[in-house]
Amino acid sequence: IAAAVDAWACGAAALPKPWQPQKPVLPVEGMRNVLITSALPYVNNVPHLGNIIGCVLSADTFARYCRLRNWNTLYVCGTDEYGTATETKAVEEGLTPQEICDKYNALHADIYRWFDISFDYFGRTTTPHQTTIAQDIFQRLLARGFLLQDSVEQLQCEGCQRFLADRFVEGTCPFCSYREARGDQCDKCGKLINAVELKNPQCKLCRGVPVVKPTQHLFLDLPKLEEQLEAWLEQSWATGDWTANARYITRSWLRDGLKPRCITRDLKWGTPVPLDGFRDKVFYVWFDAPIGYLSITANYTEHWERWWKNPQQ
What we know:
A four-stranded antiparallel beta sheet has the order 5-4-9-10, with no helix packed on it. Among the domains are: 21-139 and 288-309, HUPs (Rossmann fold, 3-Layer(aba) Sandwich); 155-212, Beta Complex (Methionyl-trna Synthetase, domain 2). The model has no long low-confidence stretch (mean pLDDT 92). It is of the alpha+beta class. The protein has helices spanning 2-10, 49-68, 84-93, 97-114, 128-143, 222-239, 244-256, 285-288, 292-300, 305-308; strands at 33-37, 72-79, 121-124, 147-157, 162-163, 169-172, 181-182, 199-203, 211-220, 261-262, 264-265, 282-283. Helix content is 39%, strand content 18%. It starts with a helix and ends in a 5-residue tail after the last helix. Helix 3 crosses helix 4.
């Protein structure tokens, strides 16, 4: 408070000059460098006030604060564009998935511009950089033995001649009997669901009754990472600023033991899997989308690794 009183008494002329970063904004030796991302908004809708409040506004407020503190700040965001939700929206509107992404990316960008959200760069995940970086991460996991192959029972629509990804299936929730549960979770009771567990399943595309058939998928071998992850978490909990809720949820996962997590899907719209036997599949959006933060930064600057692989600054 005393410092604020002194600054007020001295007037605006005594304040430090605002930091003007070079373009593109890159880490600067000796400065506090801050990289800020918003959760990537999904591309299949028109954003409303709830999206802005729950997604980009808090990060925008923090970015403005950082710039006022004369910290070297980069704020990036973009639309999350792959996955079944995009394919479903494309079917609804009679457009291709790419046309849906182009349409809603432009709408998102216009709305955030109207609200004066102070992104340094607003991008998207359907780019060559996304493919290159996601496939590189995949190849590194594969080379280090962190991937498994396994057969999964999945619903196949014989009318559409395709395996149905989670969101292409609707049915009755096996837990609470809600009749419009999706193949990945129930929006009424909130429980995660395996699509084959649904009662009275229907294909969302043709309303046919799918059948259960086996298909091969790739899994991230999380049990192999559990010991390293637990050690890292203990250090991070001690030195970081985790919320009580985040600690509780993470501890519950570790307490129950991590399980292998499927990272591929039988879809057309997504980052292709670069491995023989799986080239007709794409990466599951929850493997692919977080990599969007890296690829969006890479679309902003070719020196993106100076932000993402530079813990010393």
